[in-house]
Amino acid sequence: MRVREDEVLRANGEKGVYGVVEKHDAAIILAIEKDRGGDDRIWLVEQFRYTIGERALELPQGGWEMEIENPEELARGELREEIGLDAAEMTLLGTLWIAYGFLRQRQHVYLATGLAPAEGDRDAEEHDLTARAVPIAEFERMMLEGTIRDNSTLAAWGLYQLWRARQK
């Protein structure tokens, strides 16, 4: 991660300072599978987020703190690392800027299907991470009620809904 303050000349001719955080690309994964009854369930993770001082529920996501050439490899790695799953198919839904008002970091949004157990390998920061699959209706209720407030999760779900509507 790199943090800097740039002296800028605004369009109106005034000088200013702009704070910028730069991070390597990240991935967020919508891991969706059918339950025994044939209904869709989505995998979520919950972990302590230092910046807000509380545990947060969100889609699995993250980066490797290094340049990546293949975003799918990153997404597959995060899925394996955080949830202990492999996916038969990964579909790139799009790439988003996370918070470009101050952060220069892209996030690649993937749909993971055909899920199967795999060996997980969490890093030290994820020692308290828990994962669980919930019905889609419950996931949507949690977003609407404010239980899930992560903007990346909300944006990825919106992108997935747009993609899914075009598949019909």
Report on the architecture of this protein.
With 168 residues, the chain is of the alpha+beta class. The chain has one domain (23-165): Nucleoside Triphosphate Pyrophosphohydrolase. Helix content is 23%, strand content 45%. It has helices at residues 71-83, 136-145, 151-165; strands spanning 2-9, 15-22, 26-34, 40-49, 54-58, 61-62, 85-97, 103-104, 106-117, 130-135.
Question: Which helices and strands, and how do they pair?
Answer:
Layout: E1 2-9, E2 15-22, E3 26-34, E4 40-49, E5 54-58, E6 61-62, H1 71-83, E7 85-97, E8 103-104, E9 106-117, E10 130-135, H2 136-145, H3 151-165
Short descriptors:
168 residues; alpha+beta; Nucleoside Triphosphate Pyrophosphohydrolase; 3 helices
